[in-house]
Amino acid sequence: MMLWLRSALFLLWFVLVTTILSLIFLPVLVLPRAWAVWLARVWSRATFWGLKMFAGIDFEIRGIPARGPVLVAAKHMSMWDTLALYLALDAPAIVLKRELLRIPFYGWFLWKSTAIAIDRAAGARALRRMSSAAKKVLAEGRPILIFPEGTRKKPGAMPDYKPGVAGLYGMLGVACVPVALNSGLYWTGFLKRPGTIVLEFLEPIAPGLKRDVFMTLLEHRIESATSALLP
Q1: pLDDT at residue 14 greater than cutoff 90
Q2: Which residue has the higher pLDDT, 121 or 88?
Q3: Three-state DSSP class for 29?
Q4: Count of domains observed in the chain
Q5: For 142, phi and psi rounded to 5 degrees?
Q6: Residue 194, domain member (yes or no)
Q7: Cα 60 to Cα 111, 115, 147, 195, distances in angstroms
Q8: What is the rounded CA–CA span in Å between residue 120 and residue 33?
Q9: Is 99 helix (H, G, I), strand (E, B) or coil?
């Protein structure tokens, strides 16, 4: 009962904060991108404050957060991951499904903060567009964040890494920083279980590896480190 109540209080806080910030800062959509980045950070911090106060969830960052023009490939278990990585990284551009940009307010702010949208039905053409947008982000000295499995996975679920991350890695010619985490143990849909989420930046993978070698190494590093964070 207490778990349900604390989860409900956090949800109320999250909806309230999201609604208020979206309405008050709607003019940000016509201002320079830096304003949208600032707003995203404020929203993330407010969300994490509510998580700690109402749901008893804190977090810990291990390793050195990626900086500069690199590709960051992270495990994905919950919405928490996107918020935390946006705070930990330096104004990253996030590779995401194009459909998310159609969500009122949320999608608009994603677009303004330079999300890289991908249309999965477009195949190779989508990868070329994604690569072109990504190169512009790297030229600004900013990292690119991608979730290589393309969707959220429950803790312990079989990995399913998509080829898009290898294509992007090959086209961009930059290092890739793998990221492990265990947010799915605590952010489980509506229910928020108290504890400390761990986000761990792993040893970077140098650029220039062959596609199959890169994919094997990326999956091994992320899955091994993630498994070590699970019970």
Answers
A1: yes
A2: 88
A3: helix
A4: 1
A5: -110, 150
A6: yes
A7: 28, 25, 20, 11
A8: 26
A9: helix
Give the pLDDT band of residue 119 (cuts 50, 70, 90).
Answer: low
Does the predicted model carry a pTM greater than 0.85? yes
Q: What is the DSSP letter of 205?
A: B
Question: Does some domain include residue 52?
Answer: no
Q: Which residues contact 97 (CB under 8 A, 6 or more apart)?
A: 117, 118, 120
The continuous run of DSSP H or E covering 171 comes out as: helix 164-172
Joined tokens for residue 128: 């070329």
Q: For residue 207, give the CATH number of its domain.
A: 3.40.1130.10
Query: CA angle, corner 133, sides to 96 and 43, nearest 5?
Result: 45
pLDDT at 149 over 90: yes
202 or 82: which carries more pLDDT confidence?
Answer: 202
For the residues 200-214, what does the mean pLDDT come to?
A: 97
Q: State the SS3 of 39-89.
A: HHHHHHHHHHHHHHHHHCEEEEEECCCCCCCCEEEECCCCHHHHHHHHHHC
Asked if the structure places residue 186 within a domain, the reply is yes
How does pLDDT run across 25-56, given as a tens digit for each residue? 888 888 888 888 888 899 999 999 999 999 99
Q: Between 176 and 110, whose confidence is greater?
A: 176
**152: containing domain:** 57-229
Task: Compute the distance between CA of residue 58 and CA of residue 186 in angstroms, rounded to an integer.
Answer: 10
Q: Is residue 90 part of a domain?
A: yes
Task: Please list the residues that pair with 93 across neighbouring strands.
Answer: 144
